Amino acid sequence: MKRVIILGLLCTVALQAQDVIQWRKDRTGIYRESGLLKSWGEAGPSLLWHYDGLGEGHSSVAVSAAGKLYVTGMTDGIGYLYAFDTSGKLLDKKEYGHEWDKSYNGTRGTVTPDNGKLYLVSGLGEVVCFNESDLSIVWKKGLLTDFDGSNITWGICESPLIVGDKLIACPGGKEYNIVALNKNTGELIWSCTGDGDLSAYCSPIYLADQQTPQVVTMMQKHIIGVDIATGKKLWSFEQVNRHGVHPNVPVYADNMLLCTSGYGKGSVMLRLTDGGRNVEKVWDAPLLDSRIGAMVKVGDYAYGSGDTNRFWFCVDWKTGELKYKENTLPIGNVIAADGMLYCYSDRGDFALVRTTPERFDIASRFSITMGTDQHWAHPAIYRGVIYVRHGNTLMAYKIS
């Protein structure tokens, strides 16, 4: 009996860990759900509920192990953290300080849930830790004020990365370029000077399977790898576009990193060598210039849209060979689940697309008509429901 109870507890813990959703699920954009619909009606999937009143913002939905939904929004220049249950009931709302109101106003980075705490980085570079139980603020740190960082043209846009007891963020300062903070106290554990680049709207990722486990991110002029234990820079690779904008999280698989940038720069595939202490270029693809829509790897192929090149693309992961480019849908962001792509265009079109390298094969399509401002927030899938944020409005659609 004791063994059965222990196994049950372990399964419960594993299920909860699996159900936690941060930025793009686990930063890959791949949602590991099954039994999802392969087509929708002409009006789209069934709308379960919507909430109008988030304020301005482009941040996405996060889900904690407790099954609560979290999203941020700005009203009258002040940022708020919202907590919902899965029926759409507003459970709580917490003010956390001033937010970005200088251009394309509103909240940016997505909340990172972790072990009863919630973490976010505001557009003004404030790192905030909340208790999930009552949304009380545990600690705050300023990436710009405490670590000599500088804000960037459209405001800091970063979702904090949690690895063990470390919170990783990128102030972009000369001395404190990339930092690890104690997630419980906010105190500095280490800092890396990197290449001295400013932040570039990118959220860092963690590579645990290298001989030297590391943090990887894109800064203003370089892709960079940093030893998670010490903060030592391991390698960097120059990646420059005319605005220093690299919002897309690198896609990591098979010991390779696909790094995509907009404004005509295109993509580069890097292979890690020497146990993760160096990289080499495998291929590049100038046409594949996703700016804020990100990419997903499904099987042996990568899918996403361009920026200057306003097409949806599929490329061979290993070689970079272009399999298709099609413009039957305006460009936008993409996530994937259960053999399908979920493509949310910057014009408000939402498409369900089959994952095949042969063509951009749209199974169903409808329009997002509620909400305000830009269609930039990336959707999130949780237990057969897709959550779509469009500015002031959060929508929940049943897709199972």
Task: Please give a structural write-up.
With 400 residues, this protein is mainly beta. It has 2 helices and 33 strands. The protein has helices at 2-19, 24-27; strands at residues 30-31, 46-52, 62-63, 69-75, 78-84, 90-98, 112-114, 117-121, 126-131, 137-142, 161-163, 166-169, 178-182, 188-192, 205-207, 214-218, 222-227, 233-238, 251-253, 256-261, 266-273, 278-285, 295-298, 301-305, 312-316, 322-326, 332-337, 340-345, 349-354, 361-367, 380-382, 385-390, 393-398. A 5-stranded mixed beta sheet has the order 1-27-28-29-30. Strands 2-33-32-31 form a 4-stranded antiparallel beta sheet, with no helix packed on it. A 4-stranded antiparallel beta sheet has the order 3-4-5-6, with no helix packed on it. A hairpin with a 4-residue loop joins strand 21 (266-273) and strand 22 (278-285). The radius of gyration is 20 Å and the shape is globular. The protein starts with a helix and ends with a strand. 48% of the residues are buried.
Compose a concise summary of this entry:
This protein is mainly beta and 400 residues long. The chain is 6% helix and 44% strand.
Strand content: 35-45%
Spans with pLDDT under 50 lasting ≥5 residues?
1-17
**Helix fraction?**
under 10%
**Helix-and-strand structural type:** mainly beta
Compute the separation of the termini in Å.
Answer: 35 Å
* Biggest sheet layout: 5 strands, mixed
Radius of gyration using CA atoms only: 20 Å
